[in-house]
Amino acid sequence: MARPLAATKFEIRISKYKTISNDKNSILQTLRRHHLINALRLCSLKNEHKKQEVDGL
Asked: Which domain of life does this protein belong to (predicted)?
């Protein structure tokens, strides 16, 4: 039996939800990526500071 061309309301709702969730996921991933980069920078700065203190003593 051939499937009707018109999508049901349920199918449309699911497809809209999928696009919204995909957008949110990509935004979250980019935010996380920036957060990780900033965290790594902070760690390296702290390590440099500790090295300078040790070298100074």
From this structure: Bacteria
**10 token code pair:** 């349920």
Give mean pLDDT, residues 13-41. Answer: 72
Between 44 and 29, the higher pLDDT residue: 44
What integer pLDDT is reported at residue 56 of this predicted model?
65
Token pair for 28: 């979250």
CA–CA–CA angle 14, 29, 41 (5° rounding): 170
Q: Which two tokens stand for residue 34?
A: 């920036």
Q: Which of 53, 49, 30, 29 is nearest to 41 (CA)?
A: 49
- Cα distance between residue 28 and residue 20, in whole Å: 12
